[in-house]
């Protein structure tokens, strides 16, 4: 009897010790929290999973990243604020929403800032541009590590066909919380409503707005194709999703770990390109064939003309003229 009590005691001690051992092994790993607002089948989520995998593999599991998807920790704006304070270490946020934090990012919401996708890619891979953009938010608490392609943004409506800019008159359109996007819809003659992405489905369904604008993944991944039946290829913006990191969380890492984070971010951007192209094709087919969304091509010229005053303004405004100029130069760079 006595012996079995001792044995039981020994087993309990061993379990507790093993638990402590496990805990101390675990506590050696640096745990980073990453937040974003997109669904699990979204290419951005898949690329962030790849980023996580690469970080863990390259660091021999010395760094672990836990992803909080689907807006669990808040909207783009909220998770940017959490990244500023360090409550989360990493986040994916749209460059449109970063304009509220750093005016240089407004350049991406300037409609028709890039002639086509190739020009945009060229600019995004220009080091003068990335050096300026990625590091200059350090003093407000975060840096950018890389960008993910988030396609071209197009207009989609509940039940109105749009063929010309004059059809935009009086149309209530959701935009991201971005002053430049608000100005864009005004220039088109519509009525802009800035709101978080998570609220758009219900707002279209209930008639609070008539339209929204986004890439094709909104129709299927976020089910907007259930309530919006016309998708017009306006291609008015090409706005990247940015992967940002709290500056302290990054600076306190060893040089080797910083290098690993940067490399993994870069490699996940290449991975993203492939997943993006496949997803857009697949989701466009689903939107057409299963949700009955009509895809409409149109002449962009009147839309481009309508926003020329904005280009004038951005090329001269104190806050935006440097980045505007830098982007024009990057387009010409060999
Ligand atoms: C795109 C983008 C998201 C963004 C969303 C929006 O889907 O990838 O990062 O939140 O647009 O319109 O809010």
Please describe what this structure looks like.
- Mean pLDDT is 93; it is low at 11-26.
- Helix 2 links the parallel strand 1 (30-35) and strand 2.
- The strands form 3 sheets. A 5-stranded mixed sheet has the order 2-1-3-10-4, with helices on both faces. The chain has a 4-stranded mixed sheet with strand order 8-5-9-11, with no helix packed on it. The protein has a two-stranded parallel ribbon with strand order 6-7.
- Helix 2 (43-58) packs antiparallel against helix 11 (255-289).
- By secondary structure, it is an alpha/beta fold.
- The chain has helices at residues 2-28, 43-58, 76-85, 95-98, 117-124, 127-135, 179-188, 200-206, 217-220, 247-251, 255-289, 301-306, 308-316, 321-332; strands at residues 30-35, 63-68, 90-94, 142-148, 152-157, 172-175, 191-194, 211-214, 230-238, 241-246, 294-296.
- It folds into 2 domains: 29-102 and 137-150 and 240-281, 3-Layer(aba) Sandwich (D-Maltodextrin-Binding Protein, domain 2), CATH 3.40.190.170; 152-238 and 299-332, Bacterial extracellular solute-binding protein, family 7 (D-Maltodextrin-Binding Protein, domain 2).
- 49% of the residues lie in helices and 18% in strands.
- The site of alpha-D-glucopyranuronic acid has 11 residues, from loops.
